[in-house]
């Protein structure tokens, strides 16, 4: 009799989850909608541009002789690093993984800049920085007006303001006017 009671107890305990006694399943978290093609393209372009800006800003901080240019490069490095982190966090929520590699043209520009020094380096660095910032500013202003995702729109708007200031600072240091 004891054997059958133990067997019955074990059998009934193993059946508990099957009879609705199991803990309720947790509801899956709501996943944000994927970004539109336009927002995705913007995000991918900005990620690559941030990689380029981070690379040349490191060069500017290291190779520039004038302290003001070094400081501007250090500020640009901080700005683009923070910008990249914010962009990656925002796009990750939408399931988008971004690359940070530079284009072959950007890599060539960075490689050429690495070989320069003195006044030539500073002049070229400032001109490249002004052009890249001007190009980025146009992208950010456009995205601030047309983004479908409200978080990406806010990100683009606030970053455009920062880029406008950075471009003005670069011009004050002697950069040639960008071609746009």
Question: Can you describe what's shown?
Answer:
InterPro entries: DUF4142, Ferritin-like. This protein has 180 residues and is an all-alpha fold. The chain has one domain: Up-down Bundle (Ferritin). It is built from 6 helices and no strands. It has helices spanning 2-15, 37-63, 67-92, 104-115, 118-146, 150-172. It is elongated, with a radius of gyration of 27 Å.
Key terms:
single chain; 180 residues; mainly alpha; Ferritin; 6 helices; 73% helix; disordered N terminus
Give the structure's gist in a few sentences.
This is DUF4142 domain-containing protein. This protein is mostly helical and 180 residues long.
Layout of helices and strands:
Layout: H1 2-15, H2 37-63, H3 67-92, H4 104-115, H5 118-146, H6 150-172
Helix pairs in contact: 2-3, 2-4, 2-5, 3-6, 5-6
Pfam family, one: DUF4142
Signal peptide: 1-22
InterPro entries: DUF4142 (IPR025419), Ferritin-like (IPR012347)
């Amino acid at each position: 009799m004891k054997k059958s009671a133990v067997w019955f107890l074990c059998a009934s305990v193993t059946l508990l989850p099957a009879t609705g006694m199991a803990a309720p399943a947790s509801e899956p978290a709501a996943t944000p909608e994927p970004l539109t093609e336009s927002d995705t393209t913007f995000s991918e372009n900005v990620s690559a541009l941030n990689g380029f800006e981070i690379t040349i800003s490191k060069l500017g901080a290291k190779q520039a002789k004038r302290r003001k240019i070094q400081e501007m490069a250090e500020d640009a490095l901080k700005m683009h690093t923070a910008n990249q982190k914010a962009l990656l966090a925002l796009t990750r929520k939408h399931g988008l993984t971004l690359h940070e590699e530079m284009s072959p043209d950007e890599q060539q520009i960075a490689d050429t800049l690495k070989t320069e020094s003195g006044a030539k380096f500073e002049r070229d660095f400032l001109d490249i920085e002004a052009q890249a910032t001007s190009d980025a500013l146009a992208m950010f202003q456009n995205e601030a007006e047309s983004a479908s995702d409200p978080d990406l729109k806010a990100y683009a708007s606030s970053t455009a303001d920062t880029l406008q200031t950075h471009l003005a600072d670069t011009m004050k240091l002697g950069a040639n006017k960008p071609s746009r």
